[in-house]
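Schema walkthrough. Field components (list of strings):
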Amino acid sequence: MNVTTTQTVASALYDQLVIPGNIIVGYTENAWASYYAWMNNDFLATGLLFLVIHELVYFGRSAPWILLDHLPFFRKYKIQEAKIPSTAEQMECLKDVLIAHAFVEAIPIFGFQPICTFFDIDISANFPTLKMFALQITAFFFMEDTWHYWFHRALHYGPLYKYIHKQHHKYAAPFGLTAEYAHPIEVAVTGMGTVGSPLLYAYVFGQMHLVTIICWVVMRLFQAIDAHSGYDFPWSLRHFLPIWAGADHHDDHHKYFVGNYASSFRHWDYVLGTETPATARRHTFLKGSVEPEKKTA
Ligand SMILES: [Zn+2]
Ligand SMILES: [Zn+2]
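Field assembly_structure (string):
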């Protein structure tokens, strides 16, 4: 009896959640179908969509962090509070990232449609259910985090660090724009974790829609830019989800140059003993949220 009542309440709540969601999805599906029909060329349509979304999200999400660096009110949330990037540093990084986007990242991003065809990625206007979408995105976060942990750790090995990864460590106090400031080989290796996760999932389980991959890439960009922001707020996700790495975790990686290799989560570094000493001392993974030490060095 109780089970039936619970199920009824749960399904009523689910309906309330899903019906408005369905209306939004309906509009988006129509827009998606219209766009592909208007472009009349799947190769160009997918490439252009991916490229425009990537650029808009990367620079759109980085811009607020540039603004914050100029507002003294937010200084108390800066992790390395003595290290505010200068405008010249930000502009130099912006220029290098733009060049890398134009000459390195744009090529695989723009040529994504043949990859979709090869992996049988659905580009129809039939979007996945909310449940499938949530399941796949969660899987991608854990898959990418595992890939990133091992390859990032490998990139700290002698010659790999010297010739490839050193570029990303130019800024000991990172800021949003530095998320994709890296050697082209590193961009390819870490990008493989981001794009390869949904492709591997599609290869093994099938049922993959391009809209899920695009939303995942957007979330991964948010994660990477926020992790490099240099700011930790009382409302940052890691305070509510202790396994989430956030800026607190990755800032320490840039400050100490070794340790904290994972991207989204803390479990690999914790279990394998590769946390930076400062992160290990705080032990936010086990004890929940505590205020970070002020790191003014
Ligand atoms: Zn590193
Ligand atoms: Zn970094």
